[in-house]
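Example for tutorial group B:
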């Protein structure tokens, strides 16, 4: 469609005489098209000049403006020789066509800015190619030939700022960083190569920015490079990378959000940007960037003389639409800062453009939809005003007019009433300013004078805070000083503020650093509330948080309080996280961080009553299964790279004990065995092949190391392999044939009991299914053996006696050890399952399955089953709360008020003494049922042990 049929707005001529002169250049043209040209020329001296110079070309270009722009680009790509003149002509024509399309509403803002950016990219490409060709022809780039021109001999130009984001304004400087790939040159050629690239850079910038009689192409700014006062205009990628790794600052991180390779060796440029990913995008939420950005705003305003613009009513006269209050830079800072905060965790937030960034942040729930929509609307309006200010006289200005006459010119250019335009400017600038100030200075900040008082506020505790590592930097002290009143106010509202203060003191003392976390708290007050909730309930969990503060990221980085997603979603989320890491060690570290966050989430959900003890036990088991299956895949992949793929059918990791029964606590070890099937293979086929047995033994050891190694983020889990055949004396990995033989002919009764809770966690599905089928067959076969019931009764009774002799209950609230308590109940339940011959489905071998099996066997009646279930349920609830609150059983005399309330809520008891009495009563009842069951089972064939 031609230009005329897409016109949606028409500028008014501020000066009639130039407007008529421009109209006269296009005889036969009338209607809206003529009005657009005359209105533009009648308000903008710059566009009037371009219209007069390019009138013949413009008439044809307006018939199909997209084709007109494409023709300009085609002509530039075909250039030979000095491109200076053709580039300037191309810039004039493109500026005229794009300007008219913008003024007439033919193209939206995004099309306008992208077209200007595309022209700048092509201009850099043409100018750089000419400059590099000159150096190669003179032999000044060692080893480079004409064929290397395609990649500009390894030199790349990075587009920064608005050019990098495809957002160039109408009369924009272009911010560039020029680098070369030093790996393409020998060590003794580096100096000469750098000198050649420096000359090429200077020649390129001269072609682009020199203002000749034909004008200029683009004003070029190279000052965003590392340390521009002392570094050459083109530097090696290695030197740039070293700078950013050691000295890079927050503003440079923000700049690289928009960076992209625009000319030269694009692949080398992309590789360089990839190496900077850890510098730009931090692994953890980076709320310290907020204060950095805020300070940057203030420094820019001070440097530009905008300090008076910080408070009071807005004055439109001369107001800077880019850097002033409520301006374009404010919206960009808002967007980029949020991207810096979260983009390390979520690559989906690493878009370059401001509008795309706002949209992405809203979709990811980092900002409200209405805030994103409002700021996007204001941004488009601000940019259009900016373009019109620059179109008037081709000036790189962002200042609104300083006289009423010039304001009237701007209003005419925008086809607006002057008063209405001023009102809208004030409204939009004020709206943006309000949003940004709330972002950088959250509401509800308290002064030091508002610190709560009271006898609970131990001055000695507070006096030692400045000595803690977290408060060793001035910046951390400044942020914490702002936080402290709110933290103390929240602590004062807990049921026992003295205890909460001491627990918070323990948390603060354990923090290795404070700036990042305090910044996180300042921007997210709900995290302070959660922390106070934790320190007031579970001081041990607060201590854990001080060592693993990064888990707070998870609270605000997603649906932290949403329902449990399930094992499938966990696996998918973990796979996506690991896929972003470059090597094995990085994936092990990422795995630890991911597990730590989900583990914390389960604990918080339990602590706040969003799930009960039984549900949290299943969630901990789902988490462990997701971690194990992902880790096993990584271990196998890494091991195979050295020793070849697993020989035969591979190996399966079996979860035993609480993991097998899907009943883990917050502090559970993992009981595992590994079973492999060589399938007739003698060994692996790799660079360093291994025989079958050592292959799978070392593979299993690698898995254990992956789980237990102390790395960044700590350990994943402690591992217990004693349930494998022959215990600690046997090999860490067992062949399927040996496992079958051992379980069929040599296994002890307790080993058969353990199999009632075994299930495949990781490894080939077909092998796991075969092992499960064998497990079910074995349980049925054992149950069918003569005297199984009496034998199991005898063995269970002997095991109970050994346990009693080895370990006494650890206090009245020990849920595990003692007659009728959890271990006792689990033993008899497993015996009932084994004696019944009906293996439960994997992961279902819990107490309920054992109770049903015992009733079928006649070991107890329904009432006895209920007694076992009641005891097991209460013991489990007490155990789950104890493991969340700390190590070891609960001590009734040492429980804080918050912990006490949590325990009572979870167990349904009215007070701790009542809980102790109820646990004892239920355990006694269960012990009686167990004793009776053993007697019944043993007497079934008259063989009482």
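The residue assignment follows.
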């Amino acid at each position: 469609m031609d230009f005329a049929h897409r016109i949606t707005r028409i500028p008014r001529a501020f000066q009639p005489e130039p407007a008529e002169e421009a109209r006269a250049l296009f005889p036969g043209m009338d209607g809206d098209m003529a009005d657009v040209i005359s209105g533009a020329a009648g308000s903008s001296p710059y566009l009037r000049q371009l219209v007069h110079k390019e009138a013949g070309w413009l008439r044809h270009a307006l018939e199909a403006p997209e084709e007109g722009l494409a023709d300009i680009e085609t002509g530039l790509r075909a250039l030979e020789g000095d491109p200076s003149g053709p580039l300037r002509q191309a810039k004039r024509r493109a500026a005229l066509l794009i300007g008219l399309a913008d003024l007439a509403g033919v193209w939206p803002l995004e099309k306008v800015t992208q077209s200007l950016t595309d022209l700048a990219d092509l201009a850099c490409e043409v100018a750089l190619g000419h400059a590099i060709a000159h150096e190669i022809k003179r032999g000044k780039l060692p080893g480079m030939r004409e064929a290397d021109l395609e990649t500009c001999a390894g030199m790349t130009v990075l587009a920064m700022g608005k050019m990098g984001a495809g957002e160039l304004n109408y009369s924009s400087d272009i911010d560039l960083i020029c680098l070369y790939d030093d790996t393409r040159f020998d060590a003794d050629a580096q100096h000469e190569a750098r000198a050649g690239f420096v000359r090429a850079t200077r020649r390129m910038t001269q072609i682009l920015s020199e203002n000749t009689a034909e004008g200029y192409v683009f004003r070029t700014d190279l000052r965003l490079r590392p340390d521009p006062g002392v570094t050459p205009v083109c530097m090696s990628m290695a030197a740039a990378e070293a700078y950013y790794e050691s000295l890079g600052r927050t503003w440079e991180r923000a700049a690289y959000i928009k960076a992209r390779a625009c000319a030269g060796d694009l692949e080398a440029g992309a590789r360089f940007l990839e190496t900077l990913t850890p510098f730009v995008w931090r692994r953890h939420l980076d709320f310290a960037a907020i204060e950095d950005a805020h300070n940057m705003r203030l420094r820019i305003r001070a440097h530009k003389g905008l300090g008076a613009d910080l408070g009071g009513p807005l004055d439109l006269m001369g107001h800077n639409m880019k850097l002033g209050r409520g301006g374009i830079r404010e919206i960009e800072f808002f967007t980029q800062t949020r991207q810096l905060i979260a983009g390390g965790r979520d690559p989906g937030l690493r878009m370059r453009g401001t509008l795309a960034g706002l949209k992405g942040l809203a979709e990811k729930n980092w900002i409200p939809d209405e805030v994103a929509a409002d700021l996007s609307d204001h941004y488009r309006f601000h940019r259009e005003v900016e373009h019109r200010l620059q179109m008037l006289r081709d000036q790189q200005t962002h200042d609104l007019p300083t006289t009423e006459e010039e304001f009237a010119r701007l209003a005419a250019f925008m086809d607006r009433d002057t008063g209405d335009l001023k009102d809208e400017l004030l409204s939009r600038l004020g709206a943006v300013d309000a949003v940004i100030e709330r972002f950088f200075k959250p509401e509800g900040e308290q002064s030091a004078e508002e610190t709560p008082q009271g006898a609970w506020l131990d001055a000695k505790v507070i006096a030692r805070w400045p000595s803690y590592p977290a408060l060793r930097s001035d910046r951390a002290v400044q942020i914490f000083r702002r936080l402290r009143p709110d933290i103390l106010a929240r602590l004062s509202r807990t049921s026992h503020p003295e205890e909460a203060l001491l627990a918070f003191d323990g948390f603060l003392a354990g923090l290795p650093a404070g700036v990042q976390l305090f910044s996180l708290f300042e921007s997210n007050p709900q995290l302070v509330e959660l922390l106070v909730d934790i320190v007031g309930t579970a001081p041990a969990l607060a201590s854990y948080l001080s060592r693993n503060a990064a888990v707070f990221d998870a609270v605000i980085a997603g649906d932290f309080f949403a329902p449990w997603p399930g094992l499938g979603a966990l696996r998918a989320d973990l796979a996506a996280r690991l896929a972003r890491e470059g090597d094995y060690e990085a994936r092990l570290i990422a795995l630890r961080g991911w597990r730590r966050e989900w583990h914390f989430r389960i604990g918080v959900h339990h602590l706040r009553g969003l799930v009960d003890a039984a549900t949290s036990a299943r969630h901990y088991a789902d988490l462990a299964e997701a971690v194990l299956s992902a880790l096993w895949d990584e271990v196998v992949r890494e091991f195979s790279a050295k020793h070849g793929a697993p020989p035969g059918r591979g190996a399966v990791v079996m979860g035993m004990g609480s993991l097998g029964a899907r009943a883990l606590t917050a502090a559970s070890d993992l009981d595992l065995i590994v079973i492999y099937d060589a399938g007739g293979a003698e060994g692996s086929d790799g660079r360093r092949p291994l025989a079958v047995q050592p292959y799978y033994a070392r593979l299993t050891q690698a898995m254990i190391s992956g789980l237990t190694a102390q790395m960044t983020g700590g350990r994943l889990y402690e591992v217990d392999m004693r349930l494998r055949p022959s215990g600690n004396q046997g090999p860490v990995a067992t062949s399927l044939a040996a496992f079958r033989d051992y379980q069929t002919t040599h296994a002890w009764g307790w080993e058969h009991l353990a199999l009632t809770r075994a299930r495949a966690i990781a490894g080939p599905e077909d092998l796991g299914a075969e092992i499960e089928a064998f497990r079910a067959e074995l349980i049925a076969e054992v149950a069918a053996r003569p005297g199984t019931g009496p034998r199991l009764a005898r063995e269970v009774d002997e095991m109970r006696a050994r346990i009693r002799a080895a370990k006494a209950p650890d206090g009245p609230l020990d849920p595990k050890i003692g007659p009728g308590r959890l271990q006792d109940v689990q033993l008899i339940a497993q015996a009932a399952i084994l004696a019944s011959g009906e293996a439960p489905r994997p992961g279902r071998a819990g107490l309920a399955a054992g109770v049903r099996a015992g009733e079928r066997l006649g070991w107890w009646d329904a009432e006895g089953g209920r007694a076992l279930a009641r005891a097991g349920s209460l013991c489990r609830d007490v155990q789950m709360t104890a493991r969340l609150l700390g190590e070891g059983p609960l001590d009734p005399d040492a429980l804080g008020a918050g912990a006490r309330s949590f325990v009572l809520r979870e167990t349904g008891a009215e007070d701790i003494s009542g809980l102790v009495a109820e646990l004892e009563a239920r355990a006694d009842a269960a012990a009686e049922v167990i004793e009776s069951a053993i007697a019944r089972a043993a007497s079934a064939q008259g063989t009482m042990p």
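The chain is about 60% helix and 5% strand. Compare this with the pattern of hydrophobic and polar residues in the output above.
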